[in-house]
Amino acid sequence: MNSLFLFKDWVPIIARDVQRQRRQAPQAPFSNAYLSGMPSKRRKIMTNGSPVLLGQSQSALSDILFQAISNANVQPLHNIEEVKKDASQDVLLQSSFNEHMKNAIQERLHRDLDYCSERFPNAEKYFNIDHI
Q1: What is the three-class DSSP state of 65?
Q2: Using CB atoms within 10 A as the burial measure, which of 9, 26, 84, 122 is most buried?
Q3: Cα-atom radius of gyration of the chain, to the nearest Å?
Q4: How confident is the model at residue 129 (pLDDT cuts 50, 70, 90)?
Q5: 131 within domain boundaries
Q6: CA-based nearest residue to 84, from 122, 47, 48, 51
Q7: CB-based contacts of 93: which residues, under 8 Å, 6+ apart?
Q8: Residue 110 sits in which domain range?
Q9: What is the mean pLDDT of the chain?
Q10: pLDDT of 33 above 70
Q11: Residues near 58 by Cβ (< 8 Å), separated by ≥ 6?
């Protein structure tokens, strides 16, 4: 009899939770930081073949460039491997890419309601979020 009473108390709570979950926005894709902590096979499945930005920025930029060329269905004037190699060795391009990524992350952290600078002091120091 007691368990039935507890169950009846939970019905409105469960109904409310169901309604809240229906109104929630779909989950954003997993972050590259989260994905980089997974085993490579699982990470490959989770990313659906899209490039992972963590690691060396030279390879990330080359991978993104390759994917963009492939998705555009165009043929570069030079061999794709040569284009990737040139992109990975271009210091100005790499610097611009790194700066763009840093700015994008700063903006994301600034807007993200779940980000807590006290929990991530090194990220706060590196990205200097307060000075945007």
Answers
A1: helix
A2: 84
A3: 22
A4: low
A5: no
A6: 51
A7: 61, 87
A8: 8-45+54-126
A9: 79
A10: yes
A11: 87, 88, 89, 94
CA–CA separation, 98 vs 57, rounded Å? 7
Q: Is residue 132 part of a domain?
A: no
The four Cα atoms 48, 51, 55, 56 give a dihedral, to 10 degrees, of 160
Does the structure show a pLDDT above 80 at 132?
no
Strand, coil or helix: what is 87? helix
Which stretches of 1-132 are assigned E, i.e. beta strand? none
For tokens 């009846």, name the residue.
8
Does residue 94 register a pLDDT over 50?
yes
What tokens appear for 38 in the block? Answer: 């997974």
2 located within any domain: no
Q: What CA–CA distance (Å, rounded) separates 93 from 64?
A: 13
Residue at 27 is within a domain: yes
Contacts of 5 (CB under 8 A, 6+ apart): none
SS3 content of the chain, % helix, strand, coil (to 5): 70, 0, 30
Q: How many folded domains does the chain comprise?
A: 1
